[in-house]
Amino acid sequence: MKKLITIFCVIFWAGLIGGISFLEAPLKFQAPRITIPLGLGIGQLVFQALNKIEVVLVIIILACSLPAPLKNISSILLFSITVLLMADTFWLLPLLDERAKLVLACNAPIKSYHHILYIIVDAIKFLLLIVLGFLSLKSLHHEKRYS
């Protein structure tokens, strides 16, 4: 049962990132009458909620997966995803939130690479989750086949 919960959470998480980071976020600014401040305000709410959901999902996945030594590829992928999520949670999102607050207060922040870095981290996280989900499904199929 733990393996099924893990697989569900991994695939669900990848779907959230794909839907929010790579579909909703860029399309939001193409909607009629969406201003930069309005789009930023919506983005802050959406990405704060996404981050909270990601933290809950990684806790569930870790609880279902531990103890697992960092000897197999799935454990290494999960460790890498967790590190990337912590970088988002404790470094990138707070920086981006401060930048958004400056824009919303009509203060132009200095140029920064943090938004591009966040997109890169999300893309890597997404790809690692897809690989982890595939490997987990393959492992489950292998277990059922030989049990």
Distance between the termini: 15 Å
Number of H- or I-type helical stretches:
4
Shape: elongated
- Runs in which pLDDT lies below 50 for 5 or more consecutive residues are none
Write down how many β-strands occur, each being a DSSP E stretch of 2 or more residues: 0
pLDDT averaged over residues: 92
Query: How many independent structural domains?
Result: 1
Q: Topology as H/E string?
A: HHHH
Helix content: over 70%
Report the sheet with the most strands, covering strand number, pairing sense and barrel closure: none
Q: Please state the structural category.
A: mainly alpha
Radius of gyration: 18 Å
- How much of the sequence lies in strands comes to under 5%
Helix and strand topology:
Elements: H1 2-28, H2 36-65, H3 73-104, H4 114-145
Helix pairs in contact: 1-2, 1-4, 2-3, 3-4
Keywords: Membrane, Transmembrane, Transmembrane helix
Protein name: DUF4149 domain-containing protein
Organism: Pedobacter psychrodurus
Describe the structure.
Helix 2 (about 35-65) runs antiparallel to helix 3. The protein has helices at about 1-30, 35-65, 75-105, 115-145. The mean pLDDT is about 90. It has one domain (about 1-145). The chain is an all-alpha fold and about 150 residues long. Helix content is about 80%, strand content about 0%. The chain is elongated, with a radius of gyration of 18 Å. This is DUF4149 domain-containing protein. Keywords: Membrane, Transmembrane, Transmembrane helix.
Key attributes of the depicted protein:
single chain; 147 residues; mainly alpha; 82% helix; elongated
